[in-house]
Amino acid sequence: MGKKHKKAKLPKEVLGVKLPKEVREVGGALMEKANSPQGREMLAAGLTMAAAAATAALAKGRAERAAKPEAPRPPQAPVSPVPPVPPVPPVPPQGTQTQPDPQAIADAVGKAAEAMLGRLFGRKD
Questions:
Q1: What is the dihedral of CA 14, 17, 23, 29, to 10 degrees?
Q2: What does the alpha-carbon distance between residue 86 and residue 33 come to, in Å, rounded to a whole number?
Q3: Taking the domains of the chain in order of start, what are their residue ranges?
Q4: Over the range 38-76, which residues count as b (16 or more CB within 10 Å of their CB) and which as e?
Q5: Residue environment code for 86-103, b if the CB has 16+ CB neighbours within 10 A, otherwise e
Q6: Which of 31, 68, 99, 115 is deepest in the core (most CB within 10 A)?
Q7: pLDDT tens-digit profile of 36-87?
Q8: What is the pTM of this model?
């Protein structure tokens, strides 16, 4: 005899928030569809599209920043001497100005997808 498949059920509470019965039933139906081979294929395709969109957004932003030429400055008339202003201490940096690493983003998306699929379909052994 084959194994009997358990119906996918969601808990009554998630992170301390009570889920209505209708939401749990719809979520259970969604989990059952996700457990099918077609559902897994759809999840994988969705994750692939999300990763491609993230990579395209990074590339577009990088291209826009690289394409911006510096505006030419018009010549300035000589200004009468002004007493020197005491130096202002440099402002501490508020964040990084470096570009995000696409490989690190792809790795993070892969780990997140693996964790999500592991929870949905069980761990790989």
A1: 0
A2: 69
A3: 9-69
A4: ebeeebeeebeeebeebeeeeeeeeeeeeeeeeeeeeee
A5: eeeeeeeeeeeeeeeeee
A6: 31
A7: 888 888 888 988 999 998 898 888 877 777 766 677 777 776 766 777 777 8
A8: 0.38
